[in-house]
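Entry for zinc ion complex. Fields follow.
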Amino acid sequence: MTSKIHNGTLFSALILFASCCTQKTTPRPDTLDIVDFPTAYVPLPAKDFKFILPEVPKLEVCHSPRKDITEDFTSRDKSLIAVKDPKLFNENNTEIIDLSLIPANEYAFPLPNGNVISPYKGKRRHHSGVDIKTFANDTIVSAFDGIVRMAKPFAAYGNVIVVRHYNGLETVYSHNSKNLVKPGDRVLAGQAIALTGRTGRATTEHLHFETRINGVHFNPNIIFDMAKRKLHSKCLVCTQKGNNVIVKSVDILPHQKAGPYVPPSSL
Ligand SMILES: [Zn+2]
């Protein structure tokens, strides 16, 4: 009896030893069997795999608000080209104007069919606008919706019109043979505001066109593609430094473009 038990224990120990030896043998990778689990039995994770996708930016599409401007201009506002606008600029001295958000019916090239005959700055580097020409007494139109701030003869400008726009900009139209609007008039983009002339210091009938922000002029080419007579699809970042304003044109941020966010292909 004792011998039987002893023999049985020895037999079990041998099996256990053989089993351990088998488990310790690591198979070569190329001989691994691929176990084909039935997919129905594989438990799904509690969460889906969204966490491996790049996160959608939290930024929301910014719609340029129409600024609260009124026709209550002071006598100074009505008599000077360069005046400050107290409603512009935030605490960081920055103003963002997204041209891409201005629909086609809310802007107009100021002299339709006109060609540039003298650029901003120019050879003598003090030209404060661009000169655009068609013919005498052609119709000049407002570049954007806004309110006329100034309309009068003014020194070398001759008959001049300044329009303050809801987007924060001001535009200037000079050397006009005739002004068709007066301060306080609300005008729409494309609305006739003057006729081309050569009043003031001008040697030919043309439109001297300026773009300004907070009284400071900047290159109108930043706004308009002068050859195509179209608005650039860009974003203006305007920074106030003392009495000066730096206007930079930047590409529109991805989240500002229409349609769903598409992550860069490299991610
Ligand atoms: Zn000029």
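NOTE: The two ends are 74 Å apart (CA to CA).
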